[in-house]
Specification:
alpha+beta, single chain, extended, three-stranded antiparallel beta sheet, 3 domains, 14% strand, 139 residues
């Protein structure tokens, strides 16, 4: 069963305007796949890297699930993102691998100005420890 997402009537009107003479707004999955494979072959040839030809759309789905789990440590979020009903399906996609080293820069803030500077620099809030706010940012 396909996933269903609620959309506003404004979005539906915008999409109908995009359609033009075509029957649909988006190309079929078969068309998207064929476009991907043509581009993948072209890039593999251009970069002289034949290993790129082994990267499928399914491989990208596995990679996305693995990275999302690594970033959030929330398997239920990954399950929802992939649209799985059964957590066992999600576990097949999510490679529970160990990443070496610390993937984050961390920083602390004690004043509102410190917080502002860290947020503007791309840090995200993690927690409070003894009145000090802890932030992190991907390396």
């Amino acid at each position: 069963m396909p996933r269903q997402v609620k959309v506003s009537s404004k979005l539906i009107a915008m999409m109908q305007g995009m359609r033009g003479r075509r029957r649909t707004v988006f190309p079929s999955a078969k068309r998207i796949g064929s476009l991907y494979y043509v581009q993948r072959k072209r890039i593999a040839h251009k970069l002289n890297n034949p290993r790129l030809e082994s990267v499928s759309l399914h491989t990208l789905r596995h990679w996305h699930a693995t990275m999302l789990y690594h970033k959030t440590r929330d398997i239920l979020l990954v399950q929802k993102r992939l649209g799985h009903r059964n957590i066992q399906s999600t576990l097949l996609y999510t490679q529970l691998i160990t990443f070496e080293g610390d993937d984050f820069h961390s920083a602390t803030a004690e004043t509102v100005n410190d917080v502002k500077q860290l947020v503007e620099a791309g840090f995200e809030y993690v927690c409070d420890v003894e009145g000090v706010k802890v932030f992190r940012k991907w390396k």
